[in-house]
Design a protein that fits this description.
mainly alpha, Arc Repressor Mutant, subunit A, two-stranded antiparallel sheet, 5 helices
Length: 105
C-alpha cells in the first residue's frame, strides 16, 4: 500500500483513493459511457462543481487512469479517455462493485 521509490502511488492506494471518492467513480463511469468532455461530464454528474471535476480529472491523469487530448480549435476543447491501465483499473472497480452486490444479498 506504499508509494514506490519514485513516489508514485501503489495500485492499492489508488483503489482506496478512487473508491473512497464518489466523484472519481462518477468521472470514470462517464468516460466509460463515452462522455469525454468536461462540460458533458458536469451535466451528466448531478451536483459536481467545475472545480471538483477538474481536481478529479487531474488526479486520474496523474494516476495514469485517464489521458487527455487537446484540440487546437476556437474555442479550444479537451477530451478524456481511459488508458490501457485505466481500462484494467475500471475492471478492478467493477469487481469491487460485484463483491458489494453479492455481500448485500
Amino acid at each position: 500500500m506504499f508509494d514506490d521509490e519514485e513516489g508514485a502511488p501503489s495500485v492499492a492506494r489508488m483503489v482506496e483513493d478512487v473508491v473512497g471518492c464518489k466523484w472519481s467513480l462518477s468521472v470514470i463511469g462517464c468516460v466509460r459511457r463515452g462522455i469525454t468532455r468536461p462540460g458533458e461530464m458536469e451535466r451528466a454528474i448531478g451536483g459536481i462543481r467545475t472545480k471538483v471535476l477538474n481536481e478529479r480529472l487531474v488526479k486520474l491523469l496523474r494516476y495514469g487512469v485517464l489521458t487527455k487530448r487537446s484540440f487546437p480549435e476556437v474555442p479550444p476543447h479537451v477530451e478524456y479517455s481511459l488508458t490501457e491501465f485505466g481500462e484494467q483499473f475500471a475492471d478492478v472497480l467493477d469487481r469491487i462493485a460485484e463483491l458489494e452486490q453479492r455481500r448485500q444479498r
